[in-house]
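RECORD TYPE: inverse folding
INPUT: structure tokens
STRUCTURE:
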């Protein structure tokens, strides 16, 4: 685990693991893959936090955002 990944919360690391495994995912797909998933809005907030930290970026696909990891594992 890189030092940047050590600074993440458990939930943020879980989300990044999902994105690394899938390569890309929507917030709904991330939510479905999480154990004991939080609300959809909580997942979106966590993805936004990861984006602000530079670990994730998004691409717009119509009305949806597709999230992708930006930091090497």
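DESIGNED SEQUENCE:
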């Amino acid at each position: 685990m890189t030092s940047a990944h050590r600074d993440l919360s458990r939930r943020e690391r879980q989300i990044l693991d999902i994105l690394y495994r899938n390569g890309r995912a929507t917030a709904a797909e991330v939510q479905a893959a999480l154990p004991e998933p939080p609300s959809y809005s909580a997942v979106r907030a966590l993805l936004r936090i990861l984006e602000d930290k530079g670990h994730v970026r998004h691409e717009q696909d119509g009305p949806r955002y597709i999230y992708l990891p930006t930091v090497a594992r």
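NOTES: The mean pLDDT is 93.
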